[in-house]
Structures are given as structure tokens and as C-alpha cells.
Amino acid sequence: MKKIFCLAIVLAVFVNVNTFSATKKSSSSKKNSSSQINSEAPQVALKFVKEYTQVLESYLGDLNPAYRNHDARYSYLESTNLITKRYRNELLETIVANYAEEDGGGADPVLGLQDFDTEWKIVSYNSKNGNVLLQGPTFKVKVKVKNVNGKWLVDNSGF
Fold first, then answer.
1. pLDDT band at 24 (very low <50, low <70, confident <90, very high)
2. CA-CA distance, 153 to 104, in Å (whole number)?
3. N or C, fewer C-beta in 10 Å, the chain?
4. 0.85 exceeded by pTM
5. For residue 106, is it left (φ>0), alpha (ψ between -120 and 50) or beta?
6. Is 121 a member of any domain?
7. How many domains does the chain have?
8. Which among 107, 156, 116, 110 is positioned nearest to 136, based on CA atoms?
9. Which domain holds residue 63?
């Protein structure tokens, strides 16, 4: 009887220690997640998408609908220092190719959307693969950041 009682006590202590340890790990991972969201890499993604959607919004009424936002998007993407050279070239080529099509190309190449939000917040950031998930009131956009020579830059978005 004593052996069963001692075994029950040891088991109870073991379960309590494991529960405490799991709780502590869970709360520390939440702190890491919060600090990761506030780190430079996801902030670059947020800044890029906010700036880009402001460009889209300010030029909504300009130009013939077939070429709406073409010049504004192209100019912004040419001049921003928030994206990699590879991604800049890809986007500029896509914009030119899309506007050669009759319907203007459909979804925006940066956001992967036809419509867009202008307010965004960071939902999550995975530091292992550089993926940042941004959420607007209506849409979500995934952005990939990359460290190039010590500077965080956007290397893909809307995927």
C-alpha cells in the first residue's frame, strides 16, 4: 500500500513539473513572437505595403482605366529602397507585360489582389523563412523579407 501511495505522489509531482514547464515555455514563445513582430524585418514589409497601397489609392482616379496606376506604381517601384533588385526587376517587367494585355492584367503583382486595403498590421513573422503575414480590414498579404548586406528588404509579396 505504501508503494502505491509513494508512486502516486511521485506521479503527481512529475505531472505538475511538466505542466509548469510547458506553461513557462508557452509564455516565453509568446514574448518571442511579439518581439519578432516588432523587429526590423517585418517592419520593412509593413512599411513597403503601406507605402505601395498609398500610391495605389492616391492615383485611383487618374488616367484611362486601362492604364490606371501604371505610372504611379512603376515610379514607386523604381525608386523605393525597400525591395531587392531582383524583385524590383520582376515587378517592373510584370507591370509592363500586364498592361500589354487588354484587361490590364487582373490582380496587382505586388499584393496579389484586385482590390486592396490601405491599413495594415503585422499578424505574424517567421524569422526562419522570412515570411511576414500582413492583415488589413478585408485582405491578408504575405510578404517575404531578405537580409541583403545587413539591410532587410522585401524579396516577394502577394504569394
1. very low
2. 27
3. N
4. no
5. left
6. yes
7. 1
8. 116
9. 39-157
Q: Quick check: is 138 in a domain?
A: yes
- Is the pLDDT at 150 greater than 70? The verdict is yes
32 lies in some domain: no
134 located within any domain: yes
C-beta of residue 37 within 8 angstroms of C-beta of residue 124: yes
User: Within the chain, what is the greatest distance between any pair of CA atoms?
Assistant: 89
User: Which pairing describes strands 131-135 and 121-126: parallel, antiparallel, or unpaired?
Assistant: antiparallel
Which among 109, 132, 137 has a CA at the least distance from the CA of 52? 109
Neighbouring C-beta atoms of residue 42, cutoff 10 Å: 25
pLDDT 10s digits, 31-90? 445 667 779 999 999 999 999 999 888 866 554 555 554 568 888 999 999 999 999 999
Distance CA 79, CA 146 (A): 18
